[in-house]
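User: Need the bound-state model for riboflavin:
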Amino acid sequence: MSASSGHDLSGIRYTGTNPHTADRVVIVVAKWNPEITEALYEGAVATLREAGVRAENILRYSVPGSFELPIGAELAFKRHFNLDGIICLGCVIQGETRHFEFISQAVAQGIMRVSLDHKKPVIFGVLTPDSQQQALDRAGGKYGNKGAEAAVALLEMVDLERI
Ligand code: RBF
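Assistant: Bound-state model below.
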């Protein structure tokens, strides 16, 4: 199965054989750098759909910025008791903000905390590139689509739970 479209060099694909037709997933999307995060979202949805996840079982939460991804995931778990997992998508561009270190550290730790608290996969799909071009290269460009790769990670974790 192809995880992303175009001439991508990433090589990450979902190769599992378990059915995912009953999976319920929330994708939390940061609104900062929307040209990047929307492309990540499209890649994630396409990969989930290819694996059999139903469109009505892919829910979207939008949050203002990457910093709010962990609380977005927390609220999703609070509202939906039967989620298989969550994908968090964001983009923090290093050259454009001195807040880079604070935001990326906080998001990584926050996402890990929500995941361990709920004992469910909460996937870290946050780009931390040096430039807009590096982000574009990873949002459907030459290095693939990291949103699609985040979806592969989720599918693999759901499979792991079902062994
Ligand atoms: N959010 C992002 O997702 N990516 C960014 O590159 C980003 N840069 C920011 C730069 C500054 C100076 C500030 C104040 C916020 C930035 N945010 C960014 C938003 C942040 O994740 C969060 O939404 C806000 O700080 C509100 O809590």
